[in-house]
Amino acid sequence: MSVSEMFAALQGALGQDQDIREEIRKVVQALEQTAREILTLLQGVHQGPGFQHIPKKCQKAREHFGTVRTQMESLKTKFPADQYYVCPGSHTATHRHHWRFVLQRLVFLAAFVVYLESETLVTREAVAEILGIEADRERGFHLDIEDYLSGVLKLASELARLAVNSVTAGDYSRPLRISTFINELDSGFRLLNLKNDSLRKRYDGLKYDVKKIEEVVYDLSIRGLNKEATVGAGGEK
Amino acid sequence: GSGGFRKRKHDNFPHSQRREEKENVTPPSALMASFKSFQLELDTRHDKYERLVKLSRDITIESKRTIFLLHRFTSAPNGEEILSESEVKLDAVRRKIKQVAQELIGEDMYQFHRAISPGLQEYVEAVSFQYFIKTRSLISVEEINKQLVFTAEDREETTNMTSNSCDKQPHTWSLKVTPVDYLLGVADLTGELMRLCISSVGNGDIDTPFELSQFLRQIYDGFTFIGNTGPYEVSKKLYTLKQSLAKVENACYTLKVRGSEIPKHMLADVFSTKTELIDQEEGLP
């Protein structure tokens, strides 16, 4: 094979990668659109009257995740299954690089919905199911553990905000529950030995969320408002 | 005296500690359990990555040494010896690559690509340099990958003992150099070829520079054909490639113009001053 033939063949391979990249970009744009819609929907919970409509909003959000699943299906068809981590664009960027951001946001949104519904942390398997993807690498398009953890960290910041706003809306018991949850999450993350990467950077922000929520709980307890909340809860029984 | 004091202090200490421990014992929740498994998963992944980085560094170092060895080829009277020695060295590098391939069994190679890419590029450079010296042509990706198919020699021995079913399917695995790794390696190769050109003139070899300029031009044309379809790193190397090519072309020019006038034994001197001049010119924008 002559030198020019070799380079022509290489160019062909690189050109194909470029086509794949463009296809991926299109689907990712659609996914981003859906993610924004879900986010807008869930943002409603931060406003006073939104607190009463949490179940309804969660249900709506779950309907939107149906769209996400079909979009994920189409993303899966855009490239060979074994090329999840392939690096076409830059030498250091991967196919995954294109959908990473939106995938993390979708994990956050799914985790947020699950938290609002049941006040528990969504498992990796459950998120994968909500998004219509796999939890294991072996079974195809999967949810990478780092993306899952990044999404969970985004949830922590959102809950810090929710704690503040629920006090404003007069719900004094929610911050206490959020505090327990976030503390557990924090001790969970403490178990991990993170490398100096983007996940680590985001994890470094978790302590500020913890601090914020602790401040809210402090403000409530110093005014005796947390007792009121528990008494109120007891009274309901 | 002091012993008693120590003892008293000792008595107080564990007591408070014990109490703390008791308070900390909480039933392991589902969340903590899953984070424990995440810890395991992340640690396994990071460990593998580190092992691959180390292998990659070893591959880089050995490949670099092979290249240095091959540069001695032109000046040495016993060229064959150096070629066979380089073959031995490259075999050692391939054994390292085999270890890399073993690490990557059942993994997605591209997930760890960043760890091994530098080593693979250097290997491509060394192998293609040797191939050029031997055949005066460019090695193809397929050719390189063909040498990176490994069979499990030591594993066969154990499987023979235990079961026969494994024997029917000979266990082989391979590592594929990606097109981009190949391209970056070849781009580095051109730098070595430029050095080869300059040093061969020093040895009074007048044919090699012309051959090299021809070859480099082909590669340069190839890279310009790829242009910006390739990743960013490739276009970055294109600039250095252009400089190397200019250096070789200027060398050929000097040989052509001045070669007939100057006695052969003085050629090296004239040439070395000329290259210095070129270097200075390149410093200007």
UniProtKB/TrEMBL annotation, chain A:
Superkingdom, taxonomy of origin: Eukaryota
Gene3D superfamilies: Translin, domain 1, Translin, domain 2
Entry-linked InterPro entries: Translin, Translin_C, Translin_fam, Translin_N, Translin_sf
GO annotations of cellular component type: cytoplasm; nucleus
Keyword Magnesium among record annotations: yes
Keywords carried by this UniProt record: Cytoplasm, DNA-binding, Endonuclease, Hydrolase, Magnesium, Metal-binding, Nuclease, Nucleus, RNA-binding
Subcellular compartments: Cytoplasm; Nucleus
GO biological process terms held by the UniProt record: RNA metabolic process
GO molecular function: endonuclease activity; hydrolase activity; metal ion binding; RNA binding; sequence-specific DNA binding; single-stranded DNA binding
Residue numbers binding Mg(2+): E158
Function recorded in the entry: DNA-binding protein that specifically recognizes consensus sequences at the breakpoint junctions in chromosomal translocations, mostly involving immunoglobulin (Ig)/T-cell receptor gene segments. Seems to recognize single-stranded DNA ends generated by staggered breaks occurring at recombination hot spots. Exhibits both single-stranded and double-stranded endoribonuclease activity. May act as an activator of RNA-induced silencing complex (RISC) by facilitating endonucleolytic cleavage of the siRNA passenger strand.
Family note: Belongs to the translin family.
The protein's assembly and partners: Ring-shaped heterooctamer of six TSN and two TSNAX subunits, DNA/RNA binding occurs inside the ring.
The protein's name: Translin
Protein source organism: Callaeas wilsoni
Gene name of this polypeptide: Tsn
From TrEMBL, chain B:
Key words, A-Z: Cytoplasm, Developmental protein, Differentiation, DNA-binding, Golgi apparatus, Isopeptide bond, Magnesium, Metal-binding, Nucleus, Spermatogenesis, Ubl conjugation
Molecular function, one GO term: sequence-specific DNA binding
One cellular component term from this protein's GO annotations in UniProt: perinuclear region of cytoplasm
Location in or out of the cell: Cytoplasm, Perinuclear region; Golgi apparatus; Nucleus
Gene Ontology terms: biological process: cell differentiation; spermatogenesis
Residue sites binding Mg(2+) per the record: E125, E192
Domain of life the protein comes from: Eukaryota
Keyword DNA-binding: yes
Region (Disordered): 1-27
Family, similarity comment: Belongs to the translin family.
Subunit structure: Ring-shaped heterooctamer of six TSN and two TSNAX subunits. Interacts with GOLGA3, TSNAXIP1, SUN1 and AKAP9. Interacts with the homodimeric form of C1D following gamma-radiation. Interacts with TSN and C1D in a mutually exclusive manner.
Name of protein: Translin-associated protein X
Native source species: Callaeas wilsoni (North Island kokako)
